[in-house]
């Protein structure tokens, strides 16, 4: 099934639309004529996005400033979405931490599980019954290549992304012939913005520029994949290499190798 056609009443929901991949997904959906509900904590950034997209394209953009890490704060959003005609859900909002779990802020680690996994699950549960009964809908879950393998020093993130990767690909199997498409976007590194040489982090320097993909490209190939109901989309050569390595290398071999690399990222975060 291609993507549901945009109508005056239906809406595509994008979480984490105030930055990076989410903002690019919102822009690409608007370019394709879809009216939107955009979600993130920073309402003022979403408001600017609304003004930009509404002036550029013939779409309506509704702003919902919401902290998805808080079950009480996301409850009204879930209730609203369950009652709306949601044509597309892009479950994109996500956060990451680097370093040993024992040294990280427990509150933020719990927030990470809420944003990356529980809220995504809640959002699917809210919109799916409507999509199934209308026999049309599309869900893009933004997991990660990091969800394919154990990653010491990125444990909570890798585990939450493993949840979303597996949930997405399992759900897709249940929805065959239902009219609802489900695609997992499992990227490797995606460059969120241009960075000048002196601002480059350890990972920016380690990964040559030609291996990075940008958010506009990521959004375009992801929505194309969703329209074709592909099981998984992995933009760019590095993400694809990570995907193969993560899926086919024995986990006990992979864990110490990636663990050393992510320990470096943890040091970078501590310095930053
Ligand atoms: N960039 C990469 O290399 C890469 C690679 C693999 C996977 N991914 C995944 O792709 C997704 C987008 O990543 P990105 O790099 O574009 O990230 P980003 O630029 O940091 O954007 C994250 C988005 O999530 C929102 N968000 C964070 N915490 C939130 C909360 N508590 N409630 C509501 N919204 C929240 C942020 O908005 P507010 O701050 O306004 O709330 C922001 O819009 C994430 O799921 C990430 O794990 C990214």
Automatic annotation (TrEMBL):
Belongs to the short-chain dehydrogenases/reductases (SDR) family. The keyword Electron transport does not apply. It comes from the Bacteria. Pfam families: adh_short. Residues 12-192 form the Ketoreductase domain. The keyword Phosphoprotein does not apply. The lineage of its organism: Bacteria, Bacillati, Actinomycetota, Actinomycetes, Mycobacteriales. SUPFAM superfamilies: NAD(P)-binding Rossmann-fold domains. GO terms for molecular function: oxidoreductase activity. Keywords: Fatty acid biosynthesis, Fatty acid metabolism, Lipid biosynthesis, Lipid metabolism, NADP, Oxidoreductase. GO terms for biological process: fatty acid elongation. NCBIfam families: mycolate_SDR. Pathway: Lipid metabolism; fatty acid biosynthesis. This is Short-chain dehydrogenase. InterPro entries: KR_dom (IPR057326), NAD(P)-bd_dom_sf (IPR036291), Sc_DH/Rdtase_CS (IPR020904), SDR_fam (IPR002347).
């Amino acid at each position: 099934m291609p993507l549901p056609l945009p109508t005056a009443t239906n809406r595509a929901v994008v979480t984490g639309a105030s930055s990076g991949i989410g903002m690019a997904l919102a822009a690409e959906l608007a370019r394709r004529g879809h009216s939107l509900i955009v979600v993130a904590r920073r309402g003022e950034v979403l408001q600017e996005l609304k003004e930009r997209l509404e002036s550029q394209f013939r779409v309506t953009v509704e702003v919902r400033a919401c902290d998805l890490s808080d079950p009480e704060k996301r409850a009204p959003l879930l209730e609203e979405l369950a009652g709306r005609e949601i044509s597309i859900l892009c479950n994109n909002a996500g956060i990451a931490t680097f370093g040993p779990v024992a040294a990280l802020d427990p509150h933020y680690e719990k927030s990470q599980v809420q944003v990356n996994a529980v809220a995504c699950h809640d959002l699917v549960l809210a919109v799916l019954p409507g999509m199934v009964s209308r026999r049309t809908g599309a869900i893009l879950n933004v997991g990660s290549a990091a969800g394919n393998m154990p990653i010491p020093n990125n444990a909570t993130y890798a585990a939450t992304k493993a949840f979303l990767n597996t949930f997405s690909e399992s759900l897709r199997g249940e929805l065959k012939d239902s009219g609802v498409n489900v695609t997992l976007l499992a990227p490797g590194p995606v460059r969120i913005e241009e960075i000048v040489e002196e601002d480059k982090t350890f990972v920016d320097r380690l990964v040559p520029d030609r291996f990075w993909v940008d958010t506009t490209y990521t959004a375009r190939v992801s929505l194309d994949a969703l329209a074709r109901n592909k099981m998984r989309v992995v933009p760019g050569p590095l993400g694809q290499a990570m995907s193969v390595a993560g899926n086919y290398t024995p986990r006990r071999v992979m864990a110490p190798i990636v663990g050393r690399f992510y320990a470096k990222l943890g040091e970078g975060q501590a310095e930053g």
